[in-house]
Design brief:
By secondary structure, this protein is an alpha/beta fold. The protein contains 17 helices and 8 strands. It is globular, with a radius of gyration of 22 Å.
Protein backbone atom coordinates (compact mmCIF):
# COMPACT_ATOMS: atom_id res chain seq x y z
CA UNK A 1 0.00 0.00 0.00
CA UNK A 2 1.15 3.58 -0.49
CA UNK A 3 1.70 6.03 2.36
CA UNK A 4 -1.39 7.08 4.34
CA UNK A 5 -1.54 9.44 7.31
CA UNK A 6 -3.86 8.82 10.24
CA UNK A 7 -4.26 11.46 12.92
CA UNK A 8 -4.80 12.11 16.61
CA UNK A 9 -5.42 15.46 18.33
CA UNK A 10 -2.99 16.43 21.09
CA UNK A 11 -5.13 17.91 23.86
CA UNK A 12 -4.05 19.93 26.90
CA UNK A 13 -5.47 20.09 30.41
CA UNK A 14 -8.04 22.68 29.33
CA UNK A 15 -9.46 20.37 26.66
CA UNK A 16 -8.02 22.34 23.74
CA UNK A 17 -6.06 21.00 20.77
CA UNK A 18 -2.47 22.24 20.96
CA UNK A 19 -1.08 20.02 18.20
CA UNK A 20 -1.98 17.33 15.69
CA UNK A 21 -0.24 13.96 15.63
CA UNK A 22 0.13 12.33 12.22
CA UNK A 23 1.09 8.67 12.06
CA UNK A 24 2.59 7.52 8.78
CA UNK A 25 1.06 4.21 7.73
CA UNK A 26 2.85 2.30 4.99
CA UNK A 27 3.69 -1.38 5.15
CA UNK A 28 7.13 -1.87 3.60
CA UNK A 29 7.69 1.84 2.94
CA UNK A 30 11.32 2.93 3.01
CA UNK A 31 12.54 6.19 4.46
CA UNK A 32 13.31 7.37 0.91
CA UNK A 33 9.77 6.70 -0.38
CA UNK A 34 8.27 8.27 2.75
CA UNK A 35 10.40 11.39 2.27
CA UNK A 36 9.35 11.64 -1.38
CA UNK A 37 5.69 11.38 -0.37
CA UNK A 38 6.08 14.03 2.36
CA UNK A 39 8.01 16.46 0.16
CA UNK A 40 5.19 16.20 -2.42
CA UNK A 41 2.75 17.53 0.20
CA UNK A 42 4.62 20.71 1.07
CA UNK A 43 2.26 23.18 -0.62
CA UNK A 44 -0.83 21.84 1.19
CA UNK A 45 0.79 21.52 4.64
CA UNK A 46 -1.17 23.39 7.37
CA UNK A 47 0.25 26.86 7.89
CA UNK A 48 -0.82 27.53 11.48
CA UNK A 49 1.63 27.81 14.37
CA UNK A 50 0.07 24.70 15.89
CA UNK A 51 2.68 21.96 16.04
CA UNK A 52 2.31 18.79 13.96
CA UNK A 53 3.94 15.67 15.37
CA UNK A 54 4.92 13.15 12.71
CA UNK A 55 5.35 9.55 13.85
CA UNK A 56 7.46 7.20 11.69
CA UNK A 57 6.80 3.92 13.57
CA UNK A 58 5.89 1.88 10.49
CA UNK A 59 8.63 3.40 8.30
CA UNK A 60 12.20 2.15 8.16
CA UNK A 61 13.91 4.32 10.77
CA UNK A 62 17.23 5.50 9.36
CA UNK A 63 18.92 8.82 8.72
CA UNK A 64 17.22 9.07 5.34
CA UNK A 65 14.21 10.58 7.14
CA UNK A 66 16.28 13.72 7.70
CA UNK A 67 16.15 14.33 3.94
CA UNK A 68 12.58 15.52 4.41
CA UNK A 69 12.45 19.29 4.01
CA UNK A 70 10.06 19.53 6.93
CA UNK A 71 7.82 22.59 7.44
CA UNK A 72 8.66 24.76 10.43
CA UNK A 73 5.74 23.51 12.55
CA UNK A 74 6.80 19.84 12.40
CA UNK A 75 8.02 17.87 15.41
CA UNK A 76 9.79 14.60 14.53
CA UNK A 77 8.84 11.63 16.71
CA UNK A 78 11.82 9.32 17.04
CA UNK A 79 12.13 5.94 18.80
CA UNK A 80 15.22 4.92 20.74
CA UNK A 81 16.54 2.27 18.33
CA UNK A 82 18.53 4.68 16.10
CA UNK A 83 20.34 5.96 19.20
CA UNK A 84 21.45 2.43 20.02
CA UNK A 85 22.68 1.69 16.49
CA UNK A 86 26.32 1.69 15.32
CA UNK A 87 25.97 5.05 13.56
CA UNK A 88 24.26 6.72 16.56
CA UNK A 89 26.98 9.40 16.85
CA UNK A 90 26.46 10.36 13.21
CA UNK A 91 22.70 10.61 13.78
CA UNK A 92 23.11 12.76 16.89
CA UNK A 93 25.43 15.13 15.00
CA UNK A 94 22.98 15.36 12.08
CA UNK A 95 20.05 16.09 14.43
CA UNK A 96 22.03 18.82 16.16
CA UNK A 97 22.92 20.45 12.84
CA UNK A 98 19.35 20.25 11.55
CA UNK A 99 18.03 21.95 14.72
CA UNK A 100 14.68 20.15 14.50
CA UNK A 101 11.88 20.03 17.05
CA UNK A 102 12.14 16.49 18.41
CA UNK A 103 9.98 14.16 20.46
CA UNK A 104 11.44 10.96 21.86
CA UNK A 105 8.94 8.08 21.96
CA UNK A 106 9.99 6.49 25.24
CA UNK A 107 10.99 2.84 24.89
CA UNK A 108 13.52 0.22 26.02
CA UNK A 109 16.44 2.24 24.57
CA UNK A 110 15.78 5.20 26.88
CA UNK A 111 19.28 5.13 28.37
CA UNK A 112 20.92 5.46 24.95
CA UNK A 113 18.45 8.05 23.61
CA UNK A 114 18.39 10.32 26.66
CA UNK A 115 22.11 9.88 27.24
CA UNK A 116 23.03 10.79 23.66
CA UNK A 117 23.07 14.54 24.29
CA UNK A 118 20.21 15.06 21.82
CA UNK A 119 17.93 17.95 22.77
CA UNK A 120 14.39 16.60 22.88
CA UNK A 121 11.57 19.10 23.24
CA UNK A 122 9.04 16.42 24.20
CA UNK A 123 9.00 12.87 25.54
CA UNK A 124 5.99 10.78 24.51
CA UNK A 125 4.74 7.83 26.55
CA UNK A 126 2.43 5.21 25.02
CA UNK A 127 -0.59 4.95 27.32
CA UNK A 128 -1.23 1.41 26.08
CA UNK A 129 2.21 0.34 27.36
CA UNK A 130 2.56 2.10 30.72
CA UNK A 131 0.08 2.20 33.60
CA UNK A 132 -0.61 5.55 35.33
CA UNK A 133 1.55 4.43 38.26
CA UNK A 134 4.44 3.51 35.94
CA UNK A 135 3.94 6.79 34.10
CA UNK A 136 4.25 8.80 37.30
CA UNK A 137 7.53 7.06 38.14
CA UNK A 138 8.93 7.52 34.62
CA UNK A 139 7.96 11.19 34.55
CA UNK A 140 9.89 11.82 37.76
CA UNK A 141 13.01 10.29 36.20
CA UNK A 142 12.74 11.96 32.78
CA UNK A 143 11.50 15.41 33.83
CA UNK A 144 14.76 17.22 32.88
CA UNK A 145 14.77 15.77 29.35
CA UNK A 146 11.56 17.11 27.78
CA UNK A 147 7.90 18.04 28.18
CA UNK A 148 5.95 14.83 28.96
CA UNK A 149 3.07 13.76 26.70
CA UNK A 150 0.86 10.67 26.63
CA UNK A 151 -0.01 9.02 23.30
CA UNK A 152 -2.83 6.66 22.27
CA UNK A 153 -5.16 7.65 25.11
CA UNK A 154 -8.56 6.10 24.39
CA UNK A 155 -10.85 6.94 27.32
CA UNK A 156 -11.73 9.95 29.46
CA UNK A 157 -10.60 7.96 32.52
CA UNK A 158 -7.18 7.34 30.94
CA UNK A 159 -6.90 11.02 30.05
CA UNK A 160 -7.56 12.07 33.66
CA UNK A 161 -5.16 9.42 34.98
CA UNK A 162 -2.40 10.60 32.62
CA UNK A 163 -2.92 14.23 33.68
CA UNK A 164 -2.85 13.19 37.33
CA UNK A 165 0.43 11.37 36.64
CA UNK A 166 1.90 14.65 35.41
CA UNK A 167 1.77 14.76 31.60
CA UNK A 168 1.17 18.16 30.01
CA UNK A 169 -1.12 16.89 27.23
CA UNK A 170 -2.39 13.69 25.66
CA UNK A 171 -3.00 12.45 22.12
CA UNK A 172 -5.94 10.18 21.36
CA UNK A 173 -9.64 9.96 20.67
CA UNK A 174 -10.95 9.89 24.24
CA UNK A 175 -12.97 12.98 23.25
CA UNK A 176 -15.34 10.72 21.31
CA UNK A 177 -16.68 9.32 24.57
CA UNK A 178 -19.89 11.04 25.75
CA UNK A 179 -19.12 13.19 28.79
CA UNK A 180 -22.60 12.62 30.24
CA UNK A 181 -25.92 10.87 29.65
CA UNK A 182 -27.64 12.32 26.55
CA UNK A 183 -30.33 14.95 27.20
CA UNK A 184 -33.84 14.45 25.88
CA UNK A 185 -33.92 17.60 23.75
CA UNK A 186 -31.86 20.49 22.38
CA UNK A 187 -31.35 23.54 24.56
CA UNK A 188 -32.96 26.85 23.59
CA UNK A 189 -29.92 28.20 21.72
CA UNK A 190 -29.46 24.99 19.72
CA UNK A 191 -33.18 24.81 18.89
CA UNK A 192 -33.08 28.41 17.64
CA UNK A 193 -30.23 27.64 15.23
CA UNK A 194 -32.20 24.64 13.92
CA UNK A 195 -35.21 26.93 13.28
CA UNK A 196 -33.04 29.35 11.29
CA UNK A 197 -31.47 26.46 9.35
CA UNK A 198 -34.89 25.10 8.45
CA UNK A 199 -36.01 28.54 7.21
CA UNK A 200 -32.96 28.68 4.92
CA UNK A 201 -33.51 25.13 3.67
CA UNK A 202 -37.08 25.86 2.65
CA UNK A 203 -35.98 29.10 0.91
CA UNK A 204 -37.97 31.39 3.19
CA UNK A 205 -37.98 35.12 2.44
CA UNK A 206 -34.72 36.88 3.28
CA UNK A 207 -36.54 39.23 5.69
CA UNK A 208 -38.00 36.27 7.59
CA UNK A 209 -34.59 34.63 8.00
CA UNK A 210 -32.97 37.92 8.95
CA UNK A 211 -35.65 38.56 11.57
CA UNK A 212 -35.04 35.10 13.06
CA UNK A 213 -31.30 35.72 13.17
CA UNK A 214 -31.78 39.09 14.89
CA UNK A 215 -33.50 37.34 17.80
CA UNK A 216 -30.00 36.20 18.78
CA UNK A 217 -27.42 38.97 18.26
CA UNK A 218 -24.53 36.69 19.20
CA UNK A 219 -25.68 34.21 16.54
CA UNK A 220 -25.71 36.87 13.81
CA UNK A 221 -22.26 38.11 14.87
CA UNK A 222 -20.81 34.61 14.89
CA UNK A 223 -22.22 33.81 11.46
CA UNK A 224 -20.63 36.92 9.94
CA UNK A 225 -17.30 36.11 11.61
CA UNK A 226 -17.33 32.65 10.05
CA UNK A 227 -18.25 33.93 6.60
CA UNK A 228 -15.48 36.54 6.77
CA UNK A 229 -12.86 34.11 8.10
CA UNK A 230 -9.78 33.07 6.13
CA UNK A 231 -11.25 29.59 5.73
CA UNK A 232 -14.11 30.95 3.68
CA UNK A 233 -11.85 32.78 1.25
CA UNK A 234 -14.11 35.68 0.16
CA UNK A 235 -12.49 38.63 -1.60
CA UNK A 236 -14.71 41.21 0.15
CA UNK A 237 -16.08 41.56 3.66
CA UNK A 238 -19.72 40.57 4.19
CA UNK A 239 -21.46 43.26 6.25
CA UNK A 240 -24.93 41.80 6.81
CA UNK A 241 -27.04 38.69 6.37
CA UNK A 242 -28.76 40.27 3.35
CA UNK A 243 -25.32 40.94 1.83
CA UNK A 244 -24.36 37.33 2.53
CA UNK A 245 -27.44 36.04 0.69
CA UNK A 246 -26.63 38.28 -2.29
CA UNK A 247 -23.06 36.99 -2.54
CA UNK A 248 -23.53 33.37 -1.53
CA UNK A 249 -27.10 32.29 -2.11
CA UNK A 250 -29.07 30.02 0.21
CA UNK A 251 -27.25 26.80 -0.67
CA UNK A 252 -23.89 28.10 0.59
CA UNK A 253 -25.51 29.81 3.57
CA UNK A 254 -27.06 26.50 4.53
CA UNK A 255 -23.54 25.07 4.79
CA UNK A 256 -22.22 27.91 6.93
CA UNK A 257 -25.26 28.08 9.19
CA UNK A 258 -24.64 24.39 9.80
CA UNK A 259 -21.30 25.37 11.32
CA UNK A 260 -23.11 27.45 13.92
CA UNK A 261 -24.95 24.39 15.16
CA UNK A 262 -21.67 22.50 15.38
CA UNK A 263 -20.21 25.32 17.52
CA UNK A 264 -23.20 25.69 19.86
CA UNK A 265 -21.91 23.24 22.48
CA UNK A 266 -20.85 24.33 25.96
CA UNK A 267 -19.05 21.04 26.67
CA UNK A 268 -15.44 21.49 27.94
CA UNK A 269 -14.25 19.31 25.06
CA UNK A 270 -16.31 21.27 22.50
CA UNK A 271 -13.32 23.02 20.83
CA UNK A 272 -11.71 19.64 20.11
CA UNK A 273 -14.97 18.06 18.93
CA UNK A 274 -15.65 21.07 16.72
CA UNK A 275 -12.17 20.89 15.17
CA UNK A 276 -12.70 17.19 14.49
CA UNK A 277 -16.12 17.78 12.93
CA UNK A 278 -14.77 20.59 10.72
CA UNK A 279 -11.83 18.42 9.64
CA UNK A 280 -14.20 15.60 8.69
CA UNK A 281 -16.45 18.07 6.85
CA UNK A 282 -13.73 19.58 4.69
CA UNK A 283 -12.05 16.20 4.17
CA UNK A 284 -15.27 14.64 2.85
CA UNK A 285 -15.95 17.65 0.64
CA UNK A 286 -12.44 17.46 -0.82
CA UNK A 287 -12.57 13.70 -1.36
CA UNK A 288 -15.83 14.07 -3.25
CA UNK A 289 -14.23 16.14 -6.02
CA UNK A 290 -14.47 14.15 -9.21
CA UNK A 291 -16.38 11.31 -7.53
CA UNK A 292 -19.78 12.93 -7.03
CA UNK A 293 -21.62 15.73 -8.81
CA UNK A 294 -20.59 19.26 -7.78
CA UNK A 295 -24.07 19.79 -6.36
CA UNK A 296 -23.29 17.12 -3.73
CA UNK A 297 -20.13 18.78 -2.34
CA UNK A 298 -21.95 20.90 0.26
CA UNK A 299 -23.97 17.89 1.42
CA UNK A 300 -20.76 15.93 1.94
CA UNK A 301 -19.47 18.86 4.00
CA UNK A 302 -22.63 18.98 6.12
CA UNK A 303 -22.54 15.19 6.64
CA UNK A 304 -19.03 15.46 8.05
CA UNK A 305 -19.86 18.55 10.13
CA UNK A 306 -22.93 16.87 11.64
CA UNK A 307 -21.22 13.49 12.23
CA UNK A 308 -20.47 14.48 15.85
CA UNK A 309 -23.71 16.34 16.61
CA UNK A 310 -24.67 13.84 19.28
CA UNK A 311 -21.47 14.56 21.22
CA UNK A 312 -21.48 18.28 20.52
CA UNK A 313 -25.12 18.85 21.48
CA UNK A 314 -25.36 16.25 24.24
CA UNK A 315 -28.36 14.43 22.73
CA UNK A 316 -28.72 11.23 20.72
CA UNK A 317 -28.09 11.50 16.98
CA UNK A 318 -31.74 10.63 16.35
CA UNK A 319 -32.92 13.50 18.58
CA UNK A 320 -30.38 15.91 17.07
CA UNK A 321 -31.64 15.20 13.55
CA UNK A 322 -35.35 14.87 14.31
CA UNK A 323 -36.18 18.56 13.97
CA UNK A 324 -33.94 19.14 10.95
CA UNK A 325 -35.12 18.88 7.36
CA UNK A 326 -32.03 17.21 5.93
CA UNK A 327 -31.70 15.40 2.60
CA UNK A 328 -32.17 11.63 2.86
CA UNK A 329 -28.54 10.72 1.92
CA UNK A 330 -27.23 12.84 4.83
CA UNK A 331 -29.65 11.19 7.27
CA UNK A 332 -28.76 7.72 5.95
CA UNK A 333 -25.03 8.29 6.50
CA UNK A 334 -25.43 9.84 9.95
CA UNK A 335 -27.82 7.15 11.18
CA UNK A 336 -25.72 4.28 9.87
CA UNK A 337 -28.12 3.30 7.09
CA UNK A 338 -25.55 3.46 4.29
CA UNK A 339 -26.21 5.54 1.20
CA UNK A 340 -24.00 7.51 -1.18
CA UNK A 341 -22.26 9.64 1.48
CA UNK A 342 -21.55 6.77 3.90
CA UNK A 343 -18.28 5.57 2.26
CA UNK A 344 -16.86 9.10 2.55
CA UNK A 345 -17.82 9.31 6.24
CA UNK A 346 -16.38 5.83 6.84
CA UNK A 347 -13.11 6.93 5.24
CA UNK A 348 -12.97 10.09 7.38
CA UNK A 349 -13.47 7.99 10.52
CA UNK A 350 -10.90 5.39 9.42
CA UNK A 351 -8.32 8.19 9.27
CA UNK A 352 -8.79 8.63 13.02
CA UNK A 353 -7.81 5.02 13.77
CA UNK A 354 -4.51 3.16 13.91
CA UNK A 355 -5.23 0.53 11.25
CA UNK A 356 -3.36 1.74 8.18
CA UNK A 357 -4.42 -1.27 6.10
CA UNK A 358 -8.13 -0.70 6.85
CA UNK A 359 -7.70 2.98 6.00
CA UNK A 360 -6.04 2.10 2.68
CA UNK A 361 -8.77 -0.45 1.89
CA UNK A 362 -11.50 2.12 2.57
CA UNK A 363 -9.75 4.61 0.28
CA UNK A 364 -9.36 1.92 -2.37
CA UNK A 365 -13.13 1.32 -2.35
CA UNK A 366 -13.51 4.91 -3.56
CA UNK A 367 -10.63 4.61 -6.01
CA UNK A 368 -8.49 7.08 -4.04
CA UNK A 369 -4.69 6.99 -3.70
CA UNK A 370 -2.69 7.72 -0.56
CA UNK A 371 -1.54 11.03 -1.99
CA UNK A 372 -5.11 12.13 -2.75
CA UNK A 373 -6.28 11.27 0.75
CA UNK A 374 -3.24 12.85 2.42
CA UNK A 375 -3.65 16.08 0.45
CA UNK A 376 -7.32 16.24 1.37
CA UNK A 377 -6.51 15.60 5.04
CA UNK A 378 -3.88 18.33 5.24
CA UNK A 379 -6.19 20.77 3.46
CA UNK A 380 -8.95 19.86 5.91
CA UNK A 381 -6.70 20.34 8.95
CA UNK A 382 -5.64 23.74 7.63
CA UNK A 383 -9.30 24.70 7.16
CA UNK A 384 -10.27 23.58 10.67
CA UNK A 385 -7.35 25.52 12.17
CA UNK A 386 -8.44 28.69 10.34
CA UNK A 387 -12.06 28.32 11.39
CA UNK A 388 -11.31 28.24 15.13
CA UNK A 389 -12.44 31.41 16.81
Amino acid sequence: MSLFMTRQPVINRQGKIIATRLRLQGEGETSASAVDALNALTECWPQSDRSIFVNFDTIAGDMGLLDWIAPANVTFELPGAPFAAENAAELVAALKEANLSLCYDFDAQAAQALGSGTQFRFIGFDATTYSPAQLKTLLAKTQPYGIPLAFNVDTQQEFKACLDAGVSAAAGWFVKQPASTPAKQLNASQAHIVRVLNLVRKNADVKEVEAALKQDVALSYKLLRYINSAGFGLSCEVQSFKHAVTILGYDKLNKWLSLLLVTASKDPMAPTLMHTALTRARLMEQLGHGLVDRSEYDNLFITGAFSMLDLLLGVTMEDALEAMHLPEPILDALLGRGGMYAPFLDLAKAGEGNDGAAFADQAGMLGLTGEQVNRALLTALNFADQMEM
